[in-house]
Fold this sequence. Notes:
By secondary structure, the protein is mostly helical.
Amino acid sequence: MSYNEPPNYGTPPPPPAGGYGYGGPVGGGDHPQGTTILILGILGIVCCGPLGIAAWVMGNKAIKEIDANPSAYTNRGTVNAGRICGMVGTILMVVGIVAYVLLIAIAGTVSFSTS
C-alpha cells in the first residue's frame, strides 16, 4: 500500500446513484385537483365561506378517487388538508350566520325609548 491510496477498511463502495428514468414518480403523480382543493379550503377559512363548501365537496370526491386507486396518487395528505380546511370554513360560516341572525333578532326585541 502506498501513501497515495486511501486505506481500505473492508467496506464496500456505495452503490451508484440512480438515474432519472422515464417512469415518472414511483408512487404515481399528484391528484390534479389537490392544490386547488387546498387553496379553496384555506380561502374558505380566511375570507369566503362558500369556497369552504366547494373544497369540502371536491375533497370528498378526490379522496374517494385516491382510495379507489392508491398507487396512482401521492398527495392524499394535501387533499385531506384542503378538505378539512373546507369543513372548518363551512362550520365557521354557519356559526357566523347563526350569530348574525341572533343578533338581529335580539336587536329587534330591544325597544329604545326616547323620553
